[in-house]
Amino acid sequence: MTMQSQIESQSPSPAHAQPGLAPAPKLPTSGWLVAVLLLAIFAGVLAYGILGRLRASATLRTETDTLAVPVVSVVTPKRSAPTQEIVLPGNVQPFITSPIFSRTNGYLKAWYFDIGARVKKGQLLAEIETPEVDQQLLQSRSNLATADANLKLAEITMNRYQGLLKTHAVAQQDVDNTVGAYNANKAIVEANQANVKQLETLQSFEKIYAPFDGVITVRNTDIGDLINSGSNGNLKTDLFHISQPDVLRVYVSVPEEYSQLAKTGLTAMLTLAEFPGKEFPGKLVRTAEAISSATRTLTVEVDVTNPTGELLSGSYAQVHFKLPGKVSTFIIPVDALLFRAEGLRIAAVKNGKAELLQVTPGHDFGETIEIVSGLKGNEEIIVNPPDSIVQGEQVQIAPQTSNAGTP
How far, in Å, CA of 245 to CA of 96, rounded? Predict the structure, then answer.
């Protein structure tokens, strides 16, 4: 045997080893404990993170739900005073106003008063030249003179024939003819007299007179203008406008809810922007006795004396009425109103939910507004409600509230 074979025969060989497989190492017990501990720590960290995320998600959901409920401020409506004052716009008009037209055709010869002039009844305002009427009047007078001459001749002939008839010098037929000629000429004279009077009346229209005491407010003509009476269907033009401003009519549209309180004899005070701090007394003298279907208002007339002409017709005035009796109305902030397609609404809080109430507005005082129907007075009305608020929506009342102001 060789040296190599002896060495191989002396080296140990595993009895149970299988060819091609390495022997499995044997781990100590402390290694297993460390692995289990690391695994437990990892699982704990993972569970803690998951639980934290779940708690944060729940908190976020709770906060989101809380913030989704709007926080609102509420007020309680204030009842208006039993005797209250309402202020309504008024249109100031003269007691009498009239346009002045011409009743004849011609050219303006002269005018004597301009705008702002005070005139008396019967005072001459202007003169018109009417050459056609003048010539027709001359012709008509000539025709009347001819008719008068024929009538006188017919009368003489009739009287002569009636005298001859007594002596039987003429026939009865001849007498009847002369009587008929006299009657015919008499009718012609009367017709010509009527024609002359008509033309004289037209000629008198050459002079334009004031129909009443007043002030000239408009002058629409000048010397040489063609004046058309409009009798032939042509467009006619008013020469002057005259108004009587000593007493003014103020027309006011009273809302329907106050119509039963607007009675004849009610006193009123007028205020105008051009007279700050000054009031003009007036009295309600008549009403239309009917509600307008277009505006749902009652038209009333307030008369105001204006002896000095201080107030100008056509002015815009604020009319203050003090209405008697108890009126069940309430005052709320104007920013509590909701303008919806179905009508005016306000949002009130009831049992933590929004309730939309239909209301009828009265007078607008600026920052506050009057509500004449739809409220009982114990509602908690939301101020500045969201435009998206709906019936039954959950709301939360803010800790601090404020009351509605008075006008």
Answer: 8
